[in-house]
Each structure stands twice: as structure tokens, then as C-alpha cells.
Amino acid sequence: MKHSSASRTPVLLAQSYYLRYDPKQTRKMKPYPPLSPLITAAVLRREGISPAFFDSMLSCGVGEFANRLHEVRPRIVGILEDNFNFLTKMCTTRMREAAFEMIALAKSAGALVAVNGSDATDQTEAYLAAGADAVIIGETEQTFPEVVQRWERAGRAGRADLSGIAGLALPGGRTAKRAPMIDLEGLPLPAWDLVDVERYRKAWTEAHGRFSWNVCTSRGCPFGCNWCSKPVFGRRYAHRTPAGVAEELYQLRRTIRPDHLWFADDIFGLPSHWLQAFAREVTARGATIPFTMQSRVDLMSEPAVAALAEARCEEVWLGVESASQQVLDAMDKGSTVDQVREATRRLRRHGIRACWFIQLGYPGEEWDDIVRTRDLIREESPDDIGVSVAYPLPGTTFYQRVRAELRAKTNWADSDDLAMMFHGTYATDFYRELRTLLHEEVEARTSAGEVPAAWSFDARWTELARQAESRRSPSDAVYLTEVRRVARGG
What we know:
Elements lengths: L10 E4 L8 H6 L6 H12 L5 E3 L7 H11 L3 E5 L12 H16 L3 E5 L1 H5 L1 H6 L4 E3 L6 H12 L13 E3 L2 E2 L22 H12 L3 E4 L2 E2 L18 E2 L2 H14 L4 E4 L8 H14 L5 E5 L6 H9 L2 E9 L3 H6 L6 H13 L3 E8 L6 H14 L3 E6 L7 H6 L25 H21 L5 H14 L6 H14 L3
Helix pairs in contact: 3-4, 9-10, 10-11, 16-17
């Protein structure tokens, strides 16, 4: 349905992720514009609708959203999270509060509100109770334009019936499930012109000396790690063509001019033949840009890594999680410790930085498992690590396993929270100390080129080992006491 400028209804797109509301991410200062809303904006334009945009990423706060509402006076507001930003999958309470504030402001301004994102999918009733007129379940590029058209046809005086639109949660219940998108080539490039590019460039160059931009080539992840939440894209894998991605990089070089790219895919370049074709396409166009991506250790074959090097990959983040095979198997990770070693060494041989995601506190992990992870880090010397603790999110097998143990707090306040929200082996403060110690040791080694004097870290590890028994979580300590009492025949 095409719209003339005279009949066009004002639409405002926004997201509710504010960098300034997350102290850890503010310190890191690695902001990226929200791809999901920008792609949806481009789809709306193709339908003849010119949306306004509010970018919360570098905003000072929700007050600026209120100002934008006053400027645009939209009839329709879409608060659409960037589903390619892994931070939004954490569903932190601070960002949820921001979303609720934005919904309330939009409703007070007389707008109809549709929302989308991991948290909105997990907490549908809460978002509807906060005032949202509709929650989009799944991808937004097809559903949101249909909602806009239906609301627009109803006019300012009417309330449209959305029950015939698939992929919605409404106050009266859910509509039919919408099939996921398979043909990603039919989507336009993100509406980059809606973003204040120079503000991003300034933030990046002042913090890091170069400017990074984000791209996504695929949707979903076919692997079955039982703690991984996939509320929007699910357990599928749809990818764009290598030529289509290479063309986007060519356009980025001409318009945005980034110094570096972050491929935001859950899994970048899953088939190695895709990576090989991608390397050929970007080289042929003169569109190679240094990039960082994330993948799995079992996907880092020799052909895949060679293609990454050819395409100018400079850093790969690997989901290592643990050096205990028992813990990896409990996670349904589908990878081995030997594959961690092989992938790390292969990347290094090709001049690519190998960085590891580490997850502490998964059920069944004991002190010896933690020491194995520390030792693997020492032996293989990853270039960087990110340390988290097991975080149960709705919709995962892990969540179902620990659901009966969940405490009052079910979401982190921000990305640096690291609170244990179930009856793990150790208490939250203990895992926070472990996180800090692992980070400090890796940072000291990468800056010095070698492991510093043993006393710098070994003495601290010895002290933590001494404390480990007494610092178990209260429920775990009670359990062990009972086990010992029974074993003694008491």
C-alpha cells in the first residue's frame, strides 16, 4: 500500500537501550546504532512511509525521548529493540524501566505503541500492562509495517482490529504465529541517514582512536547451548549472500567511512564456503574493512580461518565457556576443550586475535573446574576474555532446570551485575572476585607479554582456594552438610 505525503501518518521509531544507563558499557564506550529499527525504517520507506527516529544509544536519557515526542507528535510509536545487539538479550531491569517510561510518555502524547525485543517477548504481559498496544513476537520488518498500515487506516478517531495480523501479543491474547523470514536478500539496507554518524565517530575515536560500525549477515543460531536465549530469531540460521554483504561493505566505505566493523551475528559465516566466497567478493570490490566477529571453536577449520584472514578479520570471539568437559557437556555446548586449543592456535597462526567468552557458575561446576579454566587461559593465552556467570533466561532449557531455585531477583540490573539468581555453587561476591582476578591476569599478561611474577596472582588464587569451602552459597552449604551427615550415619 502506497501513501501520499498528504495522507502519511507520523511514525516514530525508537529503541530503549541507553548506553548511559549501563556503567560498564559506558566505560567501554563501544556504541553501535540499532540495526533492527533502522532496517524496519528502510522497509517503511519502501512502503511510502517516512518515519522519524529516536536513537537512545548515545542519548542523555528518557527525557530526550520526551522532547522528540514533542517535536514529532507521532500517532504511532514503535519501540523496537536492536535484536542484533547481544546486550539487549540480557533483559536488564534498568533498560526495562526505560522502556516502560517511554511507553508511558508515548501514550501520554496520544500515540499508539508497538514494542519488540527479547525482554518484551519474555515479559509480554508486563509490557502490555505498562501500556503497549501490541507486542511484536519475532522479527519486525514484516509485522510492524502491517500494524502501521492497519492503525493508519483506522484514523485518529478509530481503534484498528489487529487480530488478523500474525506475530502479535495483544491485550486480548495472541494472534497466529508468523513464520520467520528466510529471504534476507529482499530487505533493504539500514536507513543509515537517520543516525547521527558523526556523533558515533566522535565517541569511538575519542575512546579508541578509530571508528567502528556494525553489520549483520545472518539471523539465528542452529546450535543448542541450553543456556542461550533465542526469543526473537529462534534456533534457525538464515544468511544473506556473500555478494549482498560485500555490496553493503562497499556502500559503507563510500558513505559512513568506518575504520573497523563489528559483525553482530550470533554466528558469523557458519559454512566455511560462505566465508571463502565472502573473502572473494569483498576483495573484488575493494571493500575489505578490518573486522571483529563471534563464532564457535568447532567452526574454526583451516579453510574458514584462512578465508577470515583474507577478508581482513582481526579478532574472533569464541564461546569457550569452560575448560571442564563435564561442564561443557552439561551445557549441551557440543564442543571440546581440545577444539578450544586448536581454534585458538589456528587463529593465531593466521594473525587473528583469539578472544574467549567464559561462563562461571553453571550448575555442577566446582572449584577444580574453575581452576581448569584458569589453567587453560594460562596455557593458551587468549588475547582477551569476557567473563560472566550463568544467567537463566526464560525460554531456555537451563531456565527450566533451575526455575524452582530462582530467587526474587530474576534479571540483572545492568551488564556488570553478575548476580547469581539461582542456587549456584558459590555466592555472587565470590564469582565477582574470580571475574576480576581472571581479567587482571589476562590484562597483565597481554600488556607485559608474559605471566608476571607468581606472587602477583598465585597467592590470590591460593587464598581463594582456601576460602572456597566457606564461601559456597548458603543453600549449597546446607546441602553439603546434609550429605556429610548422612554419610556419617548421623
